[in-house]
Amino acid sequence: MSFSPALPSKALLGHPIGLVDIGESDIAYLFRVSLPGIHKNLNKIKCEIQREGRVCIQGVVPEIAIPSDSGCLYRMQVQQLCPPGPFSITFSLPGQVDPRLFSPKFRPDGIFEVVVVKLGLRVPAS
Questions:
Q1: What percent of the chain lies above the pLDDT cut of 70?
Q2: Is residue 82 a contact partner of residue 7, using CB atoms and an 8 Å limit?
Q3: Which InterPro entries does its entry note (predicted)?
Q4: Which of 43, 67, 83, 111 has the smallest C-beta neighbourhood within 10 Å, fewest atoms?
């Protein structure tokens, strides 16, 4: 698994983006990726799944200005949350998959969750 921020190394101090969990059933893999601050910009996320199981997720963490009640905008001096800018996350699933058969879901807690069917298996009709 790799994470490639397009920002200086000091930007890596932010909230973890790109943490991955992978699960497996008889017919599919499920993966969850931590993408805090992205849920409102899901249309700016690109998820490419290759037949051999390689997954590449790219997107942009939006820049957020912090307004106060007085109307002032604050520029952060300490950046503990995920810094704004482009990112790329790549990892491999344990086996081959059918890249046409996947179901992405972005949860409100900032987790991008995808189920992708294993290659050569038939999905039971529901």
A1: 68
A2: no
A3: HSP20-like_chaperone, IDM2/3-like
A4: 43
What is the largest distance, in Å, between two alpha-carbon atoms of the chain?
Answer: 60
Tokens of 48: 């490419």
Whole-model pTM? Answer: 0.73
Please give the order of strands across the beta sheet that includes 46-49: 2-3, 85-92, 54-61, 46-49
CA nearest 25: which of 91, 116, 90? 116
Q: How far apart are CA 68 and CA 74, in angstroms?
A: 8
Token pair for 37: 């601050």
Three-class SS of residue 70? Answer: coil
Beta carbons of 85 and 60 less than 8 angstroms apart: yes
Instruction: Tally the residues of the chain.
Output: 126
Residue 8 has phi, psi (to 5 degrees) of -55, 160
Q: Which class would CATH give 2-118?
A: mainly beta
